[in-house]
Amino acid sequence: MAELPSFLEEQTFEAILQRMLDAVPPDMDKSEGSPIYDALSPAAIELALAAIWAQEVLRRGFTQTTFGTYLDMRAEEFGIVRRPAVAASGVVTFTGTPGTIIPAGTRVSTPSTEVAPAIIFETTQKAMIGAGGSVDVGVVAIEPGASGNVAPGAITVLVEPLAGVSAVTNSAATSGGLDEEDDDSLRARILELAHKDEGDGNKADYEIWAKEVSGVGYVLVEPLWRGPGTVRVVILDQDGNIPSPDLVAAVQEYLDPGGQGIGLGKAPIGAKVTVEVPTEVNLTITVPTLVAEGGYTVDQAKTNLEAAARAYILSISPGGTVRVKDLEAAIAGAAGVLDFGDILINGVRQNVALAVDEKGTLAGVIYT
Q1: How is the beta sheet containing 134-141 ordered, strand by strand?
Q2: With a threshold of 0.70, does the pTM exceed it?
Q3: What are the structural domain ranges in the chain?
Q4: Judging by beta carbons within 10 Å of its beta carbon (0-12, 13-18, 19+), is residue 105 exposed, middle or buried?
Q5: Residue 199's pLDDT is what?
Q6: Which residues on neighbouring strands pair with residue 362, listed in sequence order?
């Protein structure tokens, strides 16, 4: 919290009581347990509480220090709403007797464990097991949030037995689940809006509008993209990844449904908006003479090295530069990596400058 006004500093029960006792004539008994001491103590307690309340009022009154519901109210003053949680979705395969009907709303889940509860999904449509003995059905998590993003093969339980069904699983991970926007993210959006110049569809407006859609992180706005009245909006998800088609469609719908420019979304009339993802630039890195640290196998060192390289490249926003030295520093910090030779990117030892609509991605690692 910022520095308090002087009149609210050190307003403890002891300090307030002492000032009150100091104001009593010295020839009177002010010792603990005396009538004067006992009479002033309750008032000192209430005044100390009032000072705490005043500090909390200040804390809740400013965007930089408030939280929770109070931050939501501050956001509403700027026309901003906390992004809600989003339920994950995916596809599960039911195996069983051909002709068995899978009703819409059939519930399946991951197994529960001592450390994690079951994640429950329900089917989004009615389906029937085909002649091959299986059928794929779309599912959505009952509870919204990132916890619904489960790994392939994690969904194996029928919440209620269904005659004719012998097994259920998901061959691919479920995805798209997002937690409710946290205070730090909401606060950043409020301050971003407060610091931007007001406009009626300027670049700052498009950035702010796009980030109002759950899951959007980075936003690039390119006005006059294909001449007057056209705007291109390039987005990444909140983790810096290439966003899903569903997220791109949601932003398009929010800004300018169908790219018609007739004012059905946030974009003003006459602005035809096209929402796109960055072009992926595949980067293959070469790591010579990798040496594993004691206690790690070479395979373990490779796994950690690749995770570190991928995280570094992911951290570079479109328009940034993937630097060899920074990549080497990231790799050197990976668990199990003791030493290696000069790193190459796409066969050469030089930085890679990304265009404003390009996003680097780790295509592979070559060990020599």
Answers
A1: 157-158, 107-109, 120-123, 134-141, 89-96, 165-169
A2: no
A3: 6-61, 89-169, 196-276, 280-367
A4: exposed
A5: 58
A6: 283
